[in-house]
Write a structure and sequence with these properties.
Helix content: over 70%
Shape: elongated
Number of strands: 0
Length: 191
């Protein structure tokens, strides 16, 4: 996966994360609204698809109702847990359904005849599993933030961003390595 495309896929989540930083109700509502609009526009433009699209639809619809419209303080206080938890849960479900969320993105740069190969399937499970661990770690981090709010908000956000950057780096490096391995195998096959 290309790092830029991966960041584009997560751009509604990143926009929400960046805009809603701090303890401002207005910034939180603006971040939710901007991210929700981005999910819809990207879904219609087919820039966003699969489980990540549905995670955005589910979470940002939920947030629009409970945070923007109802202003439910209980939900607001736990919103980070819900955000990361939604991504974790849908990532896990995608693997249980046998279609890891990275599959739809990796098909873009993989020949169709390899989509059913064991290496392609295994690689997608591996990368999606890594993202699942990152989403789980962020869910637990947001849980810690709820119970230990004395730490600076940006301390927690820095850790979350580090996990995200680790996921992007791993996905990019793994994808490049798989493509190189594939091209070496095809070059060594007799004509």
């Amino acid at each position: 996966m290309n790092a830029l495309k991966l960041m584009l896929a997560f751009s509604p989540w990143l926009a929400f994360w960046l805009i809603s930083g701090g303890h401002s109700q207005a910034r939180l509502q603006i971040g939710i609204f901007v991210a929700a609009v981005m999910v819809v526009v990207m879904g219609l433009a087919k820039l966003h698809r699969g489980i990540i699209l549905w995670a955005g639809v589910i979470f940002f619809s939920f947030a629009l109702i409970f945070v923007v419209w109802l202003q439910d303080l209980w939900i607001i206080q736990r919103l980070g847990i819900f955000a990361s938890g939604t991504l974790f849960l849908l990532t896990l479900l995608s693997m249980l359904w046998g279609h890891p969320f990275t599959e739809s993105y990796s098909r873009e740069h993989t020949p169709r005849e390899l989509w059913t190969s064991p290496a392609f399937i295994r690689g997608n499970f591996l990368v999606t599993g890594a993202w699942g661990l990152i989403f789980l770690a962020n869910t637990l981090l947001n849980l810690a933030k709820f119970y230990y709010p004395k730490e600076n908000e940006w301390f927690y956000r820095g850790i979350e961003l580090s996990f995200f950057a680790l996921g992007v780096a791993f996905s990019t490096v793994y994808s490049r390595s798989a493509r190189r391995k594939r091209s070496k195998l095809s070059a060594s096959e007799p004509c």
